[in-house]
Design brief:
The chain contains 14 helices and 17 strands. By secondary structure, the protein is of the alpha/beta class. It folds into two domains: 6-37 and 313-402, Aspartate Aminotransferase, domain 1 (Alpha-Beta Complex), CATH 3.90.1150.10; 70-311, Aspartate Aminotransferase, domain 2. Strands 4-12-11-10-7-5-6 form a seven-stranded mixed beta sheet, sandwiched between helices. Strands 1-2-3-15 form a four-stranded mixed beta sheet. The chain has a four-stranded antiparallel beta sheet with strand order 13-14-17-16, covered by helices on one side. Helix 3 (69-79) runs antiparallel to helix 11 and helix 4 runs parallel beside helix 11. The mean pLDDT is 96.
């Protein structure tokens, strides 16, 4: 798998780069020992020309692979025309994208931002404002243990994992946490002062744990009963990754608000908070804003991503290749695997031993990019364009470093 491509070599001095990174970039990342300089499809190349097979997609961002021609063309064309004006004015790509997202979701209105955590902040603000219209005490938010909703304070307060929350306490008040699939706990937690229930349809950073249809249905029923807003965080699991446009479609449970980012821009930063019914009309001018949100570049990239997914039938490919990937993993690595979780091209492999970090590093050396969640779970988020040959190569490398 390890290949050289002389056309991909660069003038980067890796040791100097690492030294400058340590000196000038805040230490918020535990970087892996590689510098990528070029990408195309599922392939990446480092500064020495070594080739890698990317089964992480920038943590789910590059849904169409790296530098897809449709995305490159859309961004290039738009950059030569209009890049940014702020949201004080109308721009055509933003309105076109909002209309398209409404069409493919069946929802009503969109708020645009730049990331998943910002989209979740918008959703939480919608819920709080809507709750206050009913009662000044209706501000409680129910979230799930093991969730990940982002790193800004509102989203962080909904992210019930101590490793993310503890360094930044005190967090925002009003959050209550329930274990996933704890139906009794959820029923006891929701009350007349609850304004929102927020959850990922598939918990991503928590280890790729899909929530059951029954649990999602209970959340929907309780939200209806207590006039709370049901929010689904689809930042990682949405926009085609499960083989549906949105993961909640597979469960048949519709939220009032859902959030999207990551793959939404085909590699370009963009986020969206998408709402229906009364929730779509909660915000009024001045309630919320994003200077760059829905800018012409991001909106054009997202429109191109949607068109490509439709034209190339990539939702079907995500379903088919996801099934193939899980079957191949079980067939080849079954003796080393405790459980395979996920849907479509969102796959978590729980290993029978706590060796995930070592597997990650060995796979990287062999030219395969994956991710480790904790000590025992390997995460795979390959692009929607992945083929059986790509999957066979990836599993061949995995078998070498695990078995």
């Amino acid at each position: 798998m390890v290949k050289k491509n002389n056309q991909s070599t660069s003038t980067v001095d890796f040791e100097t780069l690492k030294s400058d990174d340590s000196s000038y970039v805040m230490h918020t990342y535990g970087r892996l020992p590689v510098c990528f300089v070029k990408g195309q499809g599922l392939k990446l190349w480092d500064e020495k020309g070594k080739e890698y097979l990317d089964f992480l997609s920038g943590i789910g961002v590059n849904g169409l692979g790296h530098c897809h021609p449709a995305i490159v063309e859309a961004i290039t064309k738009q950059a030569a025309t209009l890049i940014e004006t702020s949201n004080l004015y109308y721009t055509e790509p933003q309105v076109r994208l909002a209309k398209k997202l409404a069409e493919i979701s069946g929802f009503d209105k969109v708020f645009f931002c730049n990331s998943g955590t910002e989209a979740n902040e918008a959703a939480l603000k919608i819920a709080r404002k809507a709750g206050k219209k009913t009662s000044p005490d209706k501000s409680g938010i129910i979230a799930l243990n093991g969730a990940f909703h982002g790193r800004t304070f509102g989203s962080l307060s909904a992210t019930a994992q101590g490793k993310y929350q503890d360094p930044f306490r005190p967090l925002l008040p009003g959050f209550t946490y329930v274990d996933p699939e704890d139906t009794t706990g959820l029923q006891l937690a929701v009350n007349k002062n609850t304004c929102a229930i927020i959850m990922e349809v598939i918990q991503g950073e928590g280890g790729i744990h899909p929530l059951s249809t029954e649990f999602l249905q209970l959340a929907r029923s309780l939200a209806d009963e207590f006039r709370a807003i049901l929010i689904f965080d689809e930042v990682q699991c949405g926009f085609g990754r499960t083989g549906h446009w949105w993961a909640f479609e597979g469960a048949g449970v519709k939220p009032d608000v859902f959030t999207s980012a990551k793959a939404l821009g085909g590699g370009f930063p963009i986020g969206a908070c998408i709402a229906r019914g009364d929730a779509a009309d909660v915000f009024t001018p001045g309630d919320h804003a994003s200077t760059y949100g829905g800018n012409p570049l991001g909106a054009s990239a997202s429109l191109a991503a949607i068109e490509t997914i439709e034209n190339e039938h990539l939702l079907d490919n995500a379903k088919e290749m996801g099934e193939y990937l899980r079957k191949k993993l079980q067939d080849v690595l079954g003796s080393c695997i405790k459980e395979i979780r996920g849907q479509g091209l969102m796959v978590g492999i729980e290993l029978s031993k706590p060796i995930a970090r070592g597997v990650l590093m060995s796979a990287l050396e062999e030219g395969l990019i994956i991710n480790a969640i904790g000590d025992s779970v390997i995460r795979m988020l390959p692009p929607f364009i992945v083929s059986k040959d790509d999957i066979d190569k990836a599993i061949s490398i995995l078998s070498e470093v695990i078995i």
